[in-house]
Amino acid sequence: GKHWTVNEVRALIRIWSDKNIQQQLEGTVRNKRIFEQVAARLQKCGIDRDWKQCRTKYKNLKHEYKSVKSAQDSGSTSKSMKFFHELDAILGHSTMEQASKSDNDESERPPEWTEAKSEKDSIG
Fold it and tell me: What pTM does this model have?
């Protein structure tokens, strides 16, 4: 198919960052219907892509993001991609969020703080 322009990818990511769409994508493998919605929303922005193109682009972006992310985690800065920050906003938290599913992250303290504190108290 024809190349995705920057604006098209932006629009795709914007739709993908919709919490609703994210939850649907996380919750299912057979996601043709979701990508049909995505394609319909792109159409409203004047972007003519079918659901297959949307799904392929989504998969490619996700794959690219993951490889950049793991390169960064291993200390390499040579790998980068155009929409990393936008994707990181969507995907960067997904592993954590699945575990906690909470909306008030600010109030959560890492467990080691509370443990360390109670240990000190018990030595007393």
Answer: 0.70
